[in-house]
Design brief:
By secondary structure, this protein is of the alpha/beta class. The protein is built from 11 helices and 14 strands. The strands form 3 sheets. It has an 8-stranded parallel β-barrel, surrounded by 7 helices. Helix 9 links the parallel strand 13 and strand 14. The chain starts with 16 loop residues before the first helix and ends in a 15-residue tail after the last helix.
């Protein structure tokens, strides 16, 4: 899992084995995801790839504070509101990207939103897209779109009709069966699935009787959702035979290994950054490497889906 100094444009092909070989840790969308300077720093700290913050056609201000609250014990509740600078501005931000394996997260309300964004990014030095179909707290975007099978189909086919870059679809635990949504995505041409997103949740201040988040409802992330993420990765990868990137509550190398045993070809880190910063990437990568050595395995690919045998 030694990090290559040279950027590989094919790092996330349909078979993402090259990422498993190189370094399976990825920055999850929503964390430190709109600055090329930060992307470069993350790469120096050992991240295998970076997923940008979800980008929309036009700038979005998001919700008023408070937008994030720590619930303790490695869990957070957030409703940022998909704030982002918009596709035009962000494409200028990443035009200078030279070596960071960068995946652009895209979000929209209809299939017509996506083609203009892809046209702004496709000629740049990026290695693929992640379509956010599972944000749990923004109306007419994210999860509401992901719960519409026909819209999921149209969005993926629209992007694939223009771009040959790998396309991953981020699914979540919503009103629809996550396996069914992943199946639709696969059938429409998605190259892989990211599972899972935050889970719709809420917290209330018992002294003021007020919901703490300005949006009231937010997305739960961190340690409490890891077992749900493991289950979803296991079921999707086993039933659909499609590459899966695992996400949700990864705080230790043991968590990362568990996701890979469930079937994940790579793992996204998010909430752990709030606890210990970006040093988490090198710590977790080092732990995986030592585990592989102890088990007598050549690389992380040999872990993928081992739990399916039992």
């Amino acid at each position: 899992m030694k990090q290559n100094s040279k950027y590989n444009n094919d790092i996330l092909r349909v078979n993402i084995s090259s990422l498993s070989l190189r370094n399976p840790t990825i920055l999850a969308s929503g964390f430190l995801g709109i600055s090329q300077e930060l992307f470069n720093k993350l790469y120096r700290y050992g991240v295998g790839a970076v997923v940008s913050k979800s980008i929309s056609t036009q700038p979005m201000e998001g919700y008023k504070n408070p937008t994030v609250v720590s619930l303790g014990n490695g869990s957070y509740l957030n409703a940022v509101g998909l704030s982002n600078p918009g596709a035009e501005s962000f494409s200028k931000e990443v035009i200078s990207n030279k070596q960071v394996p960068l995946i652009i997260s895209l979000v929209g309300s209809t299939d017509s939103d996506f083609l203009p964004m892809v046209k702004k990014f496709d000629h740049l030095n990026i290695c693929g897209y992640e379509i956010n179909l599972s944000c749990p707290h923004v109306t007419q975007m994210g999860m509401e779109v992901g719960d519409d099978p026909e819209m999921v189909n149209r969005i993926i086919k629209t992007v694939k009709s223009y771009s040959r870059k790998p396309l991953f679809v981020k699914v979540g635990v919503g009103n629809s069966d996550i396996i069914a949504v992943a199946q639709i995505a696969k059938d429409a041409g998605a190259d892989g699935i990211t599972a899972i997103n935050t889970i719709r949740a809420m917290t209330i201040d018992i002294e003021t009787s007020m919901p703490i988040l300005s949006n009231r409802i937010g997305g739960l992330s961190g340690k409490p959702i890891k077992s749900i993420g493991i289950r979803c990765v296991y079921e999707i990868s086993k039933k659909l035979k499609i590459p899966v990137i695992g996400c949700g509550g990864v705080f230790t190398w043991e968590d990362a290994v568990e996701f890979m045993l469930a079937g994940a070809s790579a793992i996204q880190l998010g909430s752990v950054i709030g606890y210990e910063g970006i040093i988490a990437f090198s710590r977790i990568t080092s732990g995986i490497k030592k585990y592989l050595e102890r088990k007598g395995l050549k690389n992380a690919m040999e872990l993928i889906g081992l739990a399916h045998k039992y």
